[in-house]
Amino acid sequence: METIQVSPGTDSVATPDIATGEQLIAVFLAPVRDGHVSLRDAKQLPLIVKGRLQVSPPLEFEKRCNFLHIKVAPA
Amino acid sequence: MTVKRPAVGAEGFVLDHYDRNAIETHLNVVGDRFIEAFGEQPPYAIFSDSLEDYGSNWTGDLVEQFRIRRGYDLTPNLPALIGDAGPLTASVRHDWGKTLTELANERFLAPLHAWAQQHHTLFRSQTYGFPPVTLSSNRHADLPEGEGKAALLMWRQFSDLRWAASAGHLFGRPVISSETWVTSSM
Q1: pTM recorded for the entire structure
Q2: What is the CA radius of gyration of chain A?
Q3: Do A40 and B16 touch (CB under 8 A)?
Q4: What are the domain boundaries of chain B?
């Protein structure tokens, strides 16, 4: 899992580099409360356009993006 | 994870225990070569060491298998595998573990047992660890095996050996073995 900070006003986020043998499974946007990511309020973000994850509407508060991806052994 | 103590040339990722093709490839490329070396006298048993594939928590078709077996989509529930994602967290984790167990049984242990039978040998197995197999996974082993850590406490705990012996009682396997060692420093 890879987590990045998403600042207020952000409307899109670059997806992480996916290396050979890796696969992006899902991306979730979760609010930060008292410095901790609140997974209870995590929302899956389905839309990726030109390598960027679309955050709509733009954020009003800081959130964290959790990129879930796996590494698999090359065939 | 990568192989802990690989033979020369075998360095790299541990095979995917939830992938039938990976198991079949390993049995074909490695197992068949070994068994052929025995000629007309197959070994008494083949052996699967304790499962220590830490971090083995995913496979290529896990989402699909989860939906088929558990009846709902794992993907939107993935945060539950990371931390507290709400009231469903425990049940999602349980369903995820159960799915991994079923896949390990069906795609790793069962094919190994079938391969042993095909080659007229027995399947001895230390069936515990990760992938998260269960006590009943030992039904795929002819010779359940545990291991003893040569400590007095092992006789007062539910050790790997007791796990294997319990499975033997449940599944009618009268022969239970133990990987046991001692140390001169005790």
Answers
A1: 0.87
A2: 13
A3: no
A4: 20-181
- Residue B129: exposure state from Cβ atoms within 10 A (0-12, 13-18, ≥19): middle
Q: What's the pLDDT tens digit per position in B72-121?
A: 999 999 999 989 999 999 999 999 999 999 999 999 999 999 999 999 99
Residue A35 gets which letter from DSSP? T
Which residues face A23 on adjacent strands? A70
Beta strands A52-54 and B122-125, pairing class: unpaired
In chain A, which among 44-63 make CB contacts under 8 A with chain B?
Answer: 44
- Give 3-state DSSP helix, strand, coil % of chain B, rounded to 5: 45, 15, 40
CB B142 within 8 A of CB B62: no
ipTM, two decimals, is 0.76
The conformation of residue B24, written as its DSSP 8-state character, comes to H
On chain A, the residues whose CB falls within 8 A of the CB of B85 are 39-40, 42
CA B160 from centre of chain: 13
Q: Sign of the C-alpha dihedral, residues B112, B170, B127, B59? A: positive
